[in-house]
Design goal:
This protein has helices at residues 2-66, 115-128, 135-143, 150-155, 182-188, 208-213, 218-225, 235-242, 299-302, and strands spanning 82-87, 90-98, 103-104, 192-193, 201-202, 254-255, 260-269, 272-283, 287-295. It has a domain at 47-100 and 259-308: Pantoate--beta-alanine Ligase, Chain: A,domain 2 (2-Layer Sandwich). It is built from nine helices and nine strands. A hairpin with a 2-residue loop joins strand 1 (82-87) and strand 2 (90-98). By secondary structure, the chain is of the alpha/beta class. Helix 2 (115-128) packs across helix 3. It is elongated, with a radius of gyration of 28 Å. Residues 300-313 have low confidence and may be disordered.
């Protein structure tokens, strides 16, 4: 009986050793797979970034080549999407949006020469979108260092925060401004942006609500918008076609050329999607400059709904 008992104990010990060995091997395999996945993802991220830089360079070249080709419209070469291209490991594609066709929130800043005209335009845009025109006052005060009393208003909010007292660095900052809730932000997002102060509005790429905010009636705005295919050579011809004499006083705020663009690159590697955004400035005399980059699905950059949208590459 003792011998049988010893055999039973030995068998249990052997089974325990086998179980522990199996657990150890499984753990090592899991760790190995995890390390492999991490390495693969890191390599794919680096590869995707390299492709994004290539797309960004391509966008800059297109913008340079189109500089001397007349006004910027949605029929310009930069507005042509780059269809999906096969690359080692996956696919790439790209598009571009003209930021000159949206309302620059920083045109409401305290140092902008025609601030009052921009404010009236923004109030009119808010009215066209069914929003409270007093939001324009809050947006202007958010940027004004002299509006020190605004801090108390925002420190009482949930969560508490301070007014920026400077230009918007990103359009999503609008979500912190008093009176701008989620619904208001969603309505404004396709029509606004945050660029350097005192930029002009491109009438070829502006949407119908913005054209109406300039003083055009709905029918006239839709007519000059031409279903997104407006191609005015200069502001004077736009004003003549708009049949709105009041626009003459605002012609210095308008343009048919654009300085700011948003390039969007889509990279898919091993079925892993990567989305890159680059804000590009094209200025006469200084060429192309990338002023901001971001990675991910950024609705504040890509949100361009309805007739306010434009595409690229």
């Amino acid at each position: 009986m003792r011998r049988h008992g010893q055999r039973g104990v030995a068998l249990l010990v052997a089974l325990l050793v086998v179980a522990l060995a199996a657990m150890l091997i499984a753990g090592l395999l899991a760790r190995g797979e995890l390390a492999f996945a991490r390495t693969r993802n890191a390599l794919r991220a680096a590869q995707a970034e390299a492709y994004a830089q290539g797309l960004e360079h391509y966008a800059g070249q297109v913008l340079l080549e189109t500089w001397q080709q007349g006004p910027d419209t949605r029929a310009s070469a930069w507005a042509m999407p780059l269809p999906p291209q096969t690359v080692p490991g996956g696919m790439i594609s790209a598009s571009m949006r003209d930021l000159g066709g949206c309302f620059n929130l920083n045109n409401l800043g305290p140092d902008v020469p025609r601030r009052a005209d921009w404010r009236r335009t923004f109030e009119a845009l808010l009215g066209q979108l069914g929003l409270d025109p007093r939001i324009a006052i809050a947006v202007a005060a958010w940027q004004d260092p002299a509006a020190s009393g605004e801090d108390g208003r925002y420190m009482a909010a949930t969560p508490p925060h301070r007014a920026h007292q400077g230009p918007f660095t990103h359009v999503s900052e609008l979500r912190l401004v008093a009176g701008v809730d989620g619904a208001a932000y969603a309505r404004l997002l396709p029509h606004v942006c945050a660029l350097s102060p005192d930029t002009r509005l491109n009438v070829n790429t502006a949407g119908v609500p913005l054209l109406q905010a300039l003083g055009l009636g709905r029918a006239d705005a839709e007519r000059v918008w031409q279903q997104g295919q407006a191609q005015f050579n200069d502001v004077r011809s736009f004003i003549g076609e708009a049949r709105t004499p009041e626009l003459t006083a605002m012609q210095d705020l308008l343009d048919t050329r654009s300085e700011w663009f948003l390039a969007r690159g889509e990279v898919v590697l091993d079925d892993i999607p990567f989305t890159f955004f680059s804000v590009i400035q094209r200025a006469e005399g200084s060429g192309i400059q990338v002023v901001a980059r971001s990675l991910g699905s950024d609705g504040a950059w890509s949100g361009t709904g309805g007739d306010a949208a434009a595409t690229l590459h």
